[in-house]
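I hope you will forgive my troubling you with a question about protein structure. Could you please explain, in whatever detail you think fit, how the structure tokens follow from the sequence? Thank you for your consideration; the sequence and its tokens are set out here.
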Amino acid sequence: MPPAHPGTTPDDAARPLPHGRARLLPDLGTGPVVCVGETMAALVPDPVAPLATAAGLALAVAGAESNVAMYLADHAVPVRWVSAVGDDPFGARVRAEVAGRGVDVTGVRTDPARPTGLLVKDPAPDGTRVHYYRRGSAASALGPDLLADPALSGAALLHLTGITAALSPSCRALLDAALDGPVPVSFDVNHRRALWRDGSAPAVLRDLADRADVVFVGLDEAQDLWGASLAAAQDVRALLPGPALLVVKDGPRAATAFTGAAPGATPVTCTVPAPRVDVVEPVGAGDAFAAGFLAALHRGEPLPRCLRLAHLTAAAALRVPADHGPLPPAERIAALLAASDDAWSRLTVPEARRAAEPDPEAAATH
């Protein structure tokens, strides 16, 4: 686990663990992060318009876990995406697009009997609705046997989300088995109301989150799931004492990480403000945030830098209409991770051109 650093604050006391599994992450070493979950073909009105009046539809891919995998690949972290797609053109498109981002997709199964999942976006002035066509999809048939697949061999970390738990009983069993297994698990609560029509989401997602090693949840998401009385990140920690590392995102304001749930560890709390971002579209920002945090954790960065890289990666997603946006140059990321707290607090994305940088338009005229 990252040690305490300037700006972190010890908690009042360590909380007892509700489960027997020790909550202290090992050194993640050089093994890959393995992201497990469904990615679907996505139909999006093009140009943007309500679905009922759209002139045409553009084909894209959409999946929380593969989004995380693609951003991890951008950060040069060895990463695999493991899932299932149908033996159909949508499945081929999904596999090719994720692989084209530098992600290992050799663990993606092709199911000859079930289709690739599909979603259709319906933009409207008050927000975008999503229509899912994923019941009986190839990925919904995944189960605990997946954990024996060679694609999971040598994994440093498994990344899972609450979306998978909602797809089918066998997918829920997969998450249960992973959380009881030997590989550390990163879990993004990622509540999708449309997938939980039976009302079980609060209980199921709380149980899964409290059993994971690293957990990501938004404060507003936690309030929606578990009650408005969760007024601050510390309240979410009290509700989820189990994870070795809990990250609570407070929208455009800040993110707070809590560590030290393992016996004998000194609990630590670290809050890093989010940079100001000129937002184009929020879709995919949560996946990008998780990927940035896990990338820094994988290479052993201290906790404040994990949160900074998470914010920077989320900003890349917020700046584009699609799920995946370009990261700043590696040297600029390194400079921002090392910047003073004061300089970080003044960061705005996109940044104003720094004086030392050439003006590409001026250069083109000479």
The first helix runs from residue 64 to 74. Confidence is low (pLDDT under 50) at residues 1-22, 355-366. The radius of gyration is 20 Å. The first strand starts at residue 8 and ends at 10.
